[in-house]
């Protein structure tokens, strides 16, 4: 993760050998904005995201039992959100202090986790879209293909692909001393190599994280809408609505960041050198990246407002664990409550796809 607007001047807009011009082009106002405004948002996203996604994982494990592809993909999507969120406190501390205090190994690990969570999130969103496409458009084939085994195998392959795409970060991101502070950024022998890597990274993010998933979304949901229009199915339409809202919000939150990262990486190609323009690009990159972070806490909120059964399962989970942890304060038998909730039709007739 590169934070040029906060911790270091931009290399793109000034002459390579003119350090003073590079330093003067650094925007103090951009840094102040990042510290005072965006760090509060980052902490809020971290708290809501961790609590929300942990609850999603608990609900899926205890109530859904991960019995079909949809539940498996939703489970992995929550895990990928947690992987992404794991890196957030470290970057917030880096932004506030302007000094990386966690060492070189953690610089590599946290950078890797950042991109691993980012790519795996987008991959599992795409898998959910394809899963809905198979369930609605190719219902007969889906009975054979949408199995737990295939869901687990495809999830493992997805994590392997996301890991492979993130591995370069383990090599190029390094912590090093600069004057009186430490930085965690892309470090290569030549600045031309740094520019090349940032361009390659921006292209990879936009192709794998935006263009290909967007094409899959357009193709799949066009076919799904046509099928549901010809053969209305209330149950399938409800499930499709949930996945569609998750996918749509994911694109709305992440697309501005992908585009801003692309413009930042190719700024020297797209525009003539300008200090003011560079500051504007830095500010846009900072704001859109903060907006992209919020995708980690959006999915649990969607489940609460869109998924009726999820609200029911969440309440049962809360009631059960509260009853177990506070038995002395309850005016009734805990065993009786647990037996009743276990035998109730609402949990005995679980539809995995009705999250």
Automatic annotation (TrEMBL):
Places the protein is found: Cell membrane
Name of one Pfam family that matches: 7tm_1
Record's bilayer topology term: Multi-pass membrane protein
Keyword entries, A-Z: Cell membrane, Disulfide bond, G-protein coupled receptor, Membrane, Receptor, Transducer, Transmembrane, Transmembrane helix
Ranges annotated as spanning the membrane: 41-61, 73-92, 112-135, 147-173, 193-221, 242-263, 283-306
UniProt superkingdom: Eukaryota
PROSITE patterns per UniProt: G_PROTEIN_RECEP_F1_1, G_PROTEIN_RECEP_F1_2
Family annotation (SUPFAM superfamilies): Family A G protein-coupled receptor-like (SSF81321)
Primary localization: membrane
G-protein coupled receptors family 1 profile domain location: 52-303
InterPro entries listed in its UniProt record: CCR1-9-like (IPR050119), Chemokine_CCR1 (IPR002236), Chemokine_rcpt (IPR000355), GPCR_Rhodpsn (IPR000276), GPCR_Rhodpsn_7TM (IPR017452)
Family: Belongs to the G-protein coupled receptor 1 family.
Listed name of the protein: C-C chemokine receptor 1-like protein 1
Phylogenetic placement of the source organism: Eukaryota, Metazoa, Chordata, Craniata, Vertebrata
């Amino acid at each position: 993760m590169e934070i040029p607007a906060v911790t270091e001047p931009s290399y793109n807009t000034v002459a390579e050998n003119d350090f003073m011009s590079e330093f003067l082009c650094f925007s103090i106002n951009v840094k102040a904005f990042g510290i005072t405004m965006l760090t509060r948002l980052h902490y809020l996203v971290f708290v809501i995201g961790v609590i929300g996604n942990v609850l999603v994982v608990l609900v899926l494990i205890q109530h859904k039992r991960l019995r079909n592809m949809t539940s498996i993909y939703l489970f992995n999507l929550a895990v990928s959100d947690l992987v992404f969120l794991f890196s957030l406190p470290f970057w917030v501390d880096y932004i506030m202090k302007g000094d990386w205090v966690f060492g070189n190994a953690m610089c590599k690990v946290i950078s890797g986790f950042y991109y691993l969570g980012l790519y795996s999130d987008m991959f599992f969103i795409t898998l959910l879209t394809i899963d809905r496409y198979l369930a609605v458009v190719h219902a007969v084939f889906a009975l054979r293909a949408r199995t737990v085994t295939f869901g687990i195998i495809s999830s493992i392959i997805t994590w392997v692909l996301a890991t492979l795409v993130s591995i370069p970060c383990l090599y190029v991101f390094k912590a090093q001393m600069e004057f009186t502070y430490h930085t965690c950024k892309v470090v290569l022998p030549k600045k031309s190599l740094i520019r090349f890597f940032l361009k390659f990274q921006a292209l990879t993010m936009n192709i794998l994280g935006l263009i290909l998933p967007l094409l899959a979304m357009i193709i799949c949901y066009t076919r799904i809408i046509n099928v549901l229009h010809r053969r209305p199915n209330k149950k399938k339409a409800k499930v499709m609505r949930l996945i569609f809202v998750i996918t749509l919000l994911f694109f709305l939150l992440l697309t501005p960041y992908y585009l801003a990262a692309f413009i930042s990486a190719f700024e020297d190609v797209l525009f003539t050198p300008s200090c003011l323009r560079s500051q504007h690009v830095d500010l846009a990159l900072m704001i859109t990246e903060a907006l992209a972070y919020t995708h980690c806490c959006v999915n649990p909120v969607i489940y609460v407002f869109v998924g009726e059964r999820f609200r029911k399962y969440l309440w049962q989970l809360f009631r059960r664990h509260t009853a177990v942890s506070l038995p002395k304060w309850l005016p009734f038998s805990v065993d009786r409550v647990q037996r009743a909730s276990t035998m109730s039709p609402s949990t005995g007739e679980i539809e995995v796809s009705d999250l």
